């Protein structure tokens, strides 16, 4: 597949790019700064200047000819609530609109656990959860995209385990590497289309969990 990864320079984005390249996909890495390009070229991906503050019509130019778009971007913990709104919410929505303009049907987004339950939103991350909730809702109700929404638990940087629990009743942790592995496998698994899938580390091999996720 030809896959465009938004937020390719982020912690999960880098892993997604690497795993897609490893399995032979043609990967286009959306980057904000020119100095990020060389690392992706060395990794076998094609870097593309991409700014989520641009208009959907401009973003769509980068998506022409793609088979899929993966949204793994985030404003980051060092920015204010304004950028959380502009990137995690409006940026996500604009990328969905851009995908539709460009005629790309397959769209996958990395969200967060418990976005549908405001009572479980952490006080320190409420603006982030607001953004994720409304971006997810827009994707489900306002687009015709073949979407998959992944809602991982608390992200950690441990080595990947290769095993997860999908749609757990309680929260938990998951490694960024396992989120990336699941995201890459789900992208080419048709049964994940139209699904919102919560994820934490568990006991089910990812290849099995992807096929069983509903």
Automatic annotation (TrEMBL):
Pfam families: NAD_binding_10 (PF13460). Residues 7-190 form the NAD(P)-binding domain. Gene3D superfamilies: NAD(P)-binding Rossmann-like Domain. SUPFAM superfamilies: NAD(P)-binding Rossmann-fold domains. Transmembrane segments: none annotated. This is SDR family oxidoreductase. It comes from Lactiplantibacillus songbeiensis.
């Amino acid at each position: 597949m030809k896959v465009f990864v938004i937020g390719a320079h982020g912690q999960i984005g880098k892993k997604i790019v690497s795993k897609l390249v490893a399995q032979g996909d043609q990967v286009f890495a959306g980057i904000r700064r020119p100095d990020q390009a060389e690392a992706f070229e060395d990794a076998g991906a094609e870097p593309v200047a991409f700014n989520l503050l641009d208009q959907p019509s401009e973003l769509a130019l980068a998506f022409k000819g793609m088979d899929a778009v993966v949204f793994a971007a985030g404003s980051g913990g060092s920015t204010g609530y304004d950028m959380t709104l502009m990137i995690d919410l409006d940026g996500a929505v604009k990328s969905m609109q851009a995908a539709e303009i460009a005629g790309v049907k397959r769209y996958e987004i990395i969200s967060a656990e418990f976005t549908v339950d405001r009572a479980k939103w952490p006080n320190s991350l409420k603006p982030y959860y607001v953004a994720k909730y409304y971006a997810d809702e827009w994707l489900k109700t306002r687009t015709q995209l073949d979407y998959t929404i992944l809602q991982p638990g608390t992200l950690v940087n441990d080595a990947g385990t290769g095993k997860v629990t999908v749609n757990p009743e309680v929260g938990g942790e998951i490694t960024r590497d396992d989120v990336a592995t699941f995201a890459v496998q789900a992208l080419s698994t048709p049964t994940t289309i139209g699904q919102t899938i919560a994820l934490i580390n568990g006991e089910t091999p990812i290849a099995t969990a992807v096929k069983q996720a509903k």
